[in-house]
Amino acid sequence: MASSQLFTNIKTLVTNDPAVDNGSLGIIEDAAFIVDEGKIAWVGSAGQAPDADQQFDVDGRAVLPGFVESHSHLVFQGDRSVEFAARMEGKKYEAGGIRTTIEKTRSATDQQLKTNIQRYMNEYLRQGTTTVEVKSGYGQSAASEVQGVKVAATCTDEVTLLAAHVAPEEYAGRQDEYVQMAIDEMIPLAANYAKWIDVFCEKGAFTEEQSRAILTAGVQHGLVPRVHGNQLTYGSGVLLAVEFDAASVDHVVYLSDADVDALANSNTVATVLPGADFSTRNDYPNARRLLDAGVTVALGADCNPGTSFTTSIPFCIAIAVRDLKMSPNEAVWAATAGGAQALRRDDIGRISPGARANFMALDAPNHLHLAYRPGVPLVSGVWKDGTLTH
Ligand code: NIG
Ligand code: FE
């Protein structure tokens, strides 16, 4: 039988509710909230809390919305630690490394793929991430990509068909033919299981024209665009994303003034993924420049076996604060409400009436500790739809 639960004795509550405190995190000190039927029913000061069927004493901890990961590549098999080690000894990262994972992923069974997705979604969850977008993209054949999105759809509502990640071996030098195959064979079938269409618009991956063709086909099949852009070089990914009113453009490391202006005047979120820049020894994106221009910034971990084999959003928050020049408040917002906006969701990323009761408690008096205490496992409880999961 469903019963209401009062969470109380919260030292610092991050609500992300503009009605509480516009322009910041909607923080309430000495707070409480009520969960009813998996949703937030009431939020306010502990002293004014109404009665509920059950009470949960948070013991002076901080509580914040579950992190929203808007960018992961969990449909994969295999390990690329040797490639990582070579990079740390000076080898440059190239998109071609993706082909190593394609080979392994193509021969996986549905169960192997599902086990892998669940393993890393569970890692995310333990560290406070209650929503995870999952991309395919290591199949790069119609059959393997359809398999990937179909399996991913059994694990999350946020499934992305990364139709063009890198042209596989058998299409080497025949990129246009690969794109045509994706349009004719892959996208129409995969669209039954995915919500988003993504493309890696980058030197060594796909050109602007090829990327435009992929996104156009995705839209024709009811998918909503998101783009990997400007990760390794200056290029047209950002402008293409804005042209398509994409939900987000991700990586955004190498940006022209025109890119920043276009983002500032769009509905497209710029998603920074500093785990990838960390593990490829790439430059970091200048999140400060984006924020100062009025761009909406989201922060994700980008878990994938090639460039960013981490599921730790707290780790990415620490980097974002130290090296992307975000304030701790901006980084926490970007990893919660920002991720929700990048997925065009208004039911997650906040603790305010009507939202899904997805939240975490920290072994810390406030959210600043996420960046202040890097590498420390502060997440001490995670609730999804009102149920304690960890
Ligand atoms: O988000 N940018 C392209 N895709 C992945 C990495 C892919 C790989 O190297 O396996 C990323 O960084
Ligand atoms: Fe990616």
TrEMBL record:
State the EC number(s). 3.5.2.7
Residue sites binding N-formimidoyl-L-glutamate per the record:
Y138, N304, G306
Domain of life of the source? Bacteria
Q: Which reaction does it catalyse?
A: 4-imidazolone-5-propanoate + H2O = N-formimidoyl-L-glutamate
GO terms (molecular function) for this protein are: imidazolonepropionase activity; iron ion binding; zinc ion binding
Binding, 4-imidazolone-5-propanoate: R80, Y138, H165, Q231, T307
Residues reported in the UniProt entry to bind Fe(3+): H71, H73, H228, D302
**Entry keyword set:** Cytoplasm, Histidine metabolism, Hydrolase, Iron, Metal-binding, Zinc
Pathways per UniProt = Amino-acid degradation; L-histidine degradation into L-glutamate; N-formimidoyl-L-glutamate from L-histidine: step 3/3
Q: How is the cofactor bound?
A: Binds 1 zinc or iron ion per subunit.
| An example Gene Ontology biological process | L-histidine catabolic process to glutamate and formate
> SUPFAM superfamilies per the record?
Composite domain of metallo-dependent hydrolases (SSF51338), Metallo-dependent hydrolases (SSF51556)
* Statement: the UniProt record of this protein carries the keyword Cytoplasm: yes
Q: Which GO terms describe its cellular component?
A: cytoplasm
Where in or outside the cell?
A: Cytoplasm
Q: Name one Pfam family in it.
A: Amidohydro_1
**Of which family is this protein a member?**
Belongs to the metallo-dependent hydrolases superfamily. HutI family.
Q: What does this protein do?
A: Catalyzes the hydrolytic cleavage of the carbon-nitrogen bond in imidazolone-5-propanoate to yield N-formimidoyl-L-glutamate. It is the third step in the universal histidine degradation pathway.
This protein's name: Imidazolonepropionase
The species is Rothia amarae
Upper classification of the organism: Bacteria, Bacillati, Actinomycetota, Actinomycetes, Micrococcales
Name the gene behind this protein.
hutI
